[in-house]
Design a protein that fits this description.
Distance between the termini of chain A: 20 Å
CATH superfamily of the largest domain in chain A: Thiamin diphosphate (ThDP)-binding fold, Pyr/PP domains
Number of domains of chain B: 1
CATH class of the largest domain in chain A: Alpha Beta
Structural class of chain A: alpha/beta
Largest interface: A-B, 47 and 41 residues
Number of helices of chain A: 10
CATH architecture of the largest domain in chain A: 3-Layer(aba) Sandwich
Shape of chain A: globular
Strand content of chain A: 15-25%
Oligomer: heterodimer
CATH superfamily of chain B: Thiamin diphosphate (ThDP)-binding fold, Pyr/PP domains
Number of domains of chain A: 3
Helix content of chain A: 25-40%
Order of helices and strands of chain A: EHEHEHEHEHEHEHEEEEHHEEHE
Number of helices of chain B: 11
Distance between the termini of chain B: 53 Å
Strand order of the largest sheet of chain B: 2-1-3-4-6-5-8-7
Number of strands of chain B: 8
Radius of gyration of chain A: 21 Å
CATH topology of chain B: Rossmann fold
Number of strands of chain A: 14
Largest sheet of chain B: 8 strands, mixed
Strand order of the largest sheet of chain A: 3-2-4-5-7-6
Order of helices and strands of chain B: HEEHEHHEHEHEHHEHHEH
Strand content of chain B: 15-25%
Structural class of chain B: alpha/beta
Shape of chain B: globular
Largest sheet of chain A: 6 strands, parallel
């Protein structure tokens, strides 16, 4: 790329800048290391672009506030770490059930509990996938560089809007605290996709209607427009009314799972290195993806040349790193 | 001209609430207050919690958000701050808004976002079978205090006022007309308004506390209610177990949105200088 401009920036700052570039204008959060620079950058930058930062009393309310802001029409995000992410699981379920787009940044640190606060770790994968109760699909993206922090945040908002789902950006303390050279392209206003709006007459709006062919949920109307409707964390019919029949529950649960699982091909991103002739594949993500790649390079360099007793097996190897490719800007 | 019935979804009636429950009276007081102010349905949001009173937004013909137990104020904070044009009313019970959600309540009062909270205080957890809550009076019988309740209950209005809420008032379901006035005033004040409605739960609280039917419960409520003004003449001992009704505080205080507007302005200027 010819016009590359370089910045020396941390992963946490790049996440906040990525959110702003994606059009996020609302942040609610509770400070926790190693994610605090996301909040600090949001507090400084959001009011400069007409957005709002609010510091809540805990992570339960932070998650609730971004859900509320999203229903009222703002792209919204929060950032936390393991202990706070645990507290967010309750209301993350509301975003799943109410199909409310939002982005949750979890900068992982060691656990369980307070663990070795605040050393890097990657132990929250299962919590990100299954942390809130009940069956559901969810999207989790994991950056392994500062540039990834920026571009995957753009991507997270695009996926959240498209599938009306919460998206977790699963970073870790090593990447989020890392400062490195990064080229972060601004997203021009005109290229930033607006959140789709419903087109039907207001009295025909069904906020939970699903197109069975496309598995696409109807667009979310922001509160305050022409559409008067109800969003709920309870089991509901397509109009948002309470509905407890087993047949309806079956349909809703399948939809919540299918809209993610059956669209895997357009969601999942991986980076592959040196896999063409590999006999061993090293699968890695986040901060360890970079170490894994370096290790594989070293193994290839030493492996089948002259070091039979070296630390690496004499085999050709490659790395496979899921959900960490820099995407193009959201469309 | 709108009437209160324009704000109700009558096709969902009868409500799920028990005979003699106070919720219907509070619901009507809210619908009447909406009509008094001629609120635009499209610009009005009812945010509810979980519990018997958490069903209320089902019956209100405005935008609804039904979230989780105790967190209604936090959802409402996001909704109001993201779109300041909205009138946001937050419907919570005593277990919901003042026990599991107690921390959100004190911080909402302190933060002073322009919301109106209507807490129906029926002195126990009705939906789960009548267990004691954070407002159950000491000595009362509930399904989890079968020998009499050990703890003291919260005075919710004192709590909200101490935490900084600019408008705080208490009404009761024995005086629906007065409740309508308090809710209307709360809605018309800018900043965090807190209206507590002392209510009755004949099914659980009444049955276990020698108030066998709704008539006896309402009589008990009337006999133990006093105006805040009238209470000034009584001693602390005489006030024990009484509900003090009226306006606890009505003192304007600049709301979060107004102050943040100045943050936005100065951040913009700093951006230009840098």
């Amino acid at each position: 790329m010819e016009n590359k401009t370089w910045q020396f920036i941390s992963g946490n700052e790049a996440i906040a800048e990525g959110a702003i570039a994606a059009g996020a204008r609302f942040y609610a959060g509770y400070p926790i290391t190693p994610s605090s620079e996301v909040a600090e950058t949001a507090a400084r930058r959001l009011p400069q672009v007409g957005g709002m930062y609010v510091q809540m009393e805990d992570e339960l309310s932070s998650m609730a506030a971004i859900i509320g802001a999203s229903v009222a029409g703002k792209r919204a995000f929060t950032a936390t770490s393991g202990p706070g992410f645990s507290l967010m699981q309750e209301n993350l379920g509301v975003a799943v059930m109410g199909e409310i787009p939002c982005v949750i940044v979890n900068v992982q640190r060691s656990g369980p509990s307070t663990g070795m606060a605040t050393k890097p770790a990657q132990g929250d994968v299962m919590q990100a996938r299954w942390g809130t109760h009940g069956d559901h699909g969810i999207v989790v993206l994991s950056p392994s560089s500062v540039e990834d922090c920026y571009y995957l945040t753009l991507c997270a908002f695009a996926i959240a809007d498209r599938f009306r789902t919460p998206v977790v950006l699963l970073a870790d303390a090593a990447i989020a605290k890392l400062k490195e050279r990064a080229s972060l392209h601004p997203v021009p206003e005109a290229e930033r996709a607006m959140r789709p709006l419903p087109a039907c007459p207001p009295d025909e709006y069904r906020p939970f209607a699903v197109d069975p062919e496309e598995r696409v949920i109807t667009p979310l109307a922001p509160f305050g427009g022409d559409y008067v409707y109800r969003i709920t964390g309870s089991m509901h019919d397509d109009a948002g009314g309470q509905a407890a029949s087993p047949a309806n529950a079956d349909q809703v649960i399948h939809h919540l799972t299918d809209k993610i699982e059956k669209n895997r091909s357009s969601i999942v991103q991986v980076r592959e290195y040196d896999l063409d002739d590999a006999e061993i594949a090293v699968i890695s993500f986040g901060c360890s993806a970079r170490s894994a790649r370096a290790a594989v390079r070293e193994a290839r360099r030493r492996g089948w040349s002259s070091s039979p007793s070296g630390p690496f097996p004499r085999m050709r190897s490659g790395t496979f790193s899921p959900t960490s490719a820099p995407p193009s800007s959201p469309s | 001209m709108r009437t209160y019935r324009d704000y109700l979804v009558e096709k969902r009636f009868p409500t799920i609430w028990c005979g003699g429950c106070g919720n219907g009276i509070v619901l009507k007081a809210i619908a009447l207050a909406f009509a008094d102010l001629g609120l635009d349905r499209k610009k009005t949001v009812a945010v509810s919690g979980i519990g018997c009173w958490g069903w209320a937004d089902d019956y209100l013909n405005v935008n609804g958000f039904h979230g989780t137990h105790g967190r209604a104020l936090a959802f409402a904070t996001g909704i109001k701050l993201a779109n300041p044009e909205l009138t946001v009313v937050v419907l919570m019970g005593d277990g919901d808004g003042a026990t599991i959600g107690g921390n959100h309540l004190i911080h909402a009062a302190r933060r002073n976002v322009d919301l109106t909270a209507v807490v129906v205080n029926n002195l126990n957890y009705g939906m789960t079978g009548g267990q004691y809550s954070g407002t159950t009076p000491q000595g009362s019988y509930t399904s989890t205090s079968p020998y009499g309740h050990v703890e003291d209950g919260f005075d919710l209005c004192a709590l909200a006022a101490a935490a900084g809420a600019p408008y705080v008032a208490r009404g009761s379901v024995a005086e629906g007309g007065k409740l309508r006035e308090l809710v209307r005033t709360g809605l018309s004040r800018k900043g965090f308004s807190f209206v507590e409605a002392i209510s009755v739960c004949p099914t659980h609280f009444g049955r276990r506390n020698k108030k066998k039917n709704p008539t006896e419960m309402f009589r008990w409520l009337r006999e133990n209610a006093l105006s805040i003004e009238g209470a000034k003449r009584l001693s602390e001992e005489e006030l024990k177990g009484k509900f003090l009704l009226g306006t606890v505080r009505d003192r304007p205080s600049e709301d979060y949105g107004t102050r943040y507007g100045r943050v936005t302005a100065s951040a913009g200027e700093m951006e230009e200088l840098s």
